[in-house]
Write a structure and sequence with these properties.
Shape: globular
Structural class: alpha/beta
Radius of gyration: 20 Å
Number of strands: 9
CATH class of the largest domain: Alpha Beta
Order of helices and strands: HEHHEHEEHEHEHEHEEHH
Strand order of the largest sheet: 6-5-7-8-9
Number of helices: 10
Distance between the termini: 37 Å
Strand content: 5-15%
Oligomer: single chain
Largest sheet: 5 strands, parallel
Helix content: 25-40%
Length: 299
């Protein structure tokens, strides 16, 4: 997948499926994120249940395939976390249901975990249009940059100290996309609301986004926003640290550490590129003091 040899990846996936014990499909003894669901059967003209067992970012990344699935299947039911419903509701011809881990939906004629859709449909990421999610932009000041320095607790190496982003916040008008108070001179010092619809509105209203590898990166990419993605030295399979672009999101600029744990050169590179980005658009905010934005405006 990283090498963009998708046909080879799908062939490997089918080999793995063929070697599995069918009795272990959707194994209730395993945590949801470790389960496999799709057994290789065709999705065409089937009643398909799409289960979202992975993280919010994974679900947003693979939601790109839902419109294509709806064109081929008889019906599509998506069992997704309730937090995502406001974003996924804009995808036509799918039925959304809340994922309750204690009471999952009963199987349909074809069950697929959402991250298995690329193989089930044999569609490369570039075959899906961008943007594939929609959100009305929040009324924030023009030329604002959204900043996200914090990833999930399960991989601390993806996060960076917030203070390293100070040069960006001091030179440009910025807002925080982290649901916690910020020490930076941003227009929302209390942080971003813990609400995905509100977060999506903020991202949609930003001129650019700078984020670590977390859900915000997938949200910004799915919304088609210009985004700088800060990556650790050895990122996971979806990002190639030797490249600066991504098949998954054409508006992403990948910037990876050259040495593990060394974020300073990455941030310095992004700072220079943001200056050029705003100069190209005819406006750069040079040290303009951040004007706080109230909770009503953000939420």
């Amino acid at each position: 997948m990283r090498a963009r040899d998708y046909a080879a990846a799908w062939a490997l996936e089918r080999e793995v499926i063929a070697a599995r014990d069918p009795a272990t499909r959707d194994d209730p003894r395993l945590p949801y994120h470790q389960r496999w669901v799709w057994d290789g059967r065709p999705v065409d003209l089937a009643d398909v249940l799409v289960r979202c067992y992975h993280g919010l970012g994974d679900t947003l990344q693979f939601a790109r395939y839902l419109p294509a699935l709806a064109l081929r299947a008889k019906s599509v039911t998506v069992e997704a976390p309730a937090r995502l419903h406001s974003l996924l509701a804009s995808i036509a011809h799918v039925s959304l249901h809340r994922f309750d881990p204690a009471h999952p939906l009963k199987s349909h004629s074809c069950d697929v975990e959402i991250t298995e859709l690329s193989g089930a449909l044999e569609l490369a990421p570039g075959a899906t249009p961008i943007p594939y999610l929609r959100a009305a932009p929040a009324p924030i000041p023009p030329m604002t940059i959204g900043l996200c320095h914090q990833a999930g607790d399960w991989d601390a190496d993806r996060s960076l100290p917030e203070a390293l982003l100070a040069p960006l916040a001091e030179r440009h008008r910025c807002l925080s996309l982290v649901a916690a108070p910020s020490t930076l001179p941003v227009i929302n010092p209390d942080g971003c609301p813990f609400d995905l619809a509100a977060t999506a509105a903020l991202v949609a209203g930003c001129a650019a986004v700078v984020t670590v590898d977390t859900m915000v990166a997938h949200l910004a990419g799915a919304l088609g926003r210009p985004t700088w993605l800060l990556l650790k030295h050895q990122p996971d399979w979806r990002w190639d640290p030797s490249r600066h672009d991504s098949d998954w999101y054409p508006t992403l600029h990948l910037r990876a550490q050259s040495r593990a744990g060394d974020w300073a050169p990455v941030v310095a590179t992004v700072a220079r590129e943001l200056d050029a980005f705003f100069d190209d658009q005819g406006e750069t905010i040079h040290g303009q003091p951040a004007q706080p934005v109230g909770a009503r405006l953000l939420g």
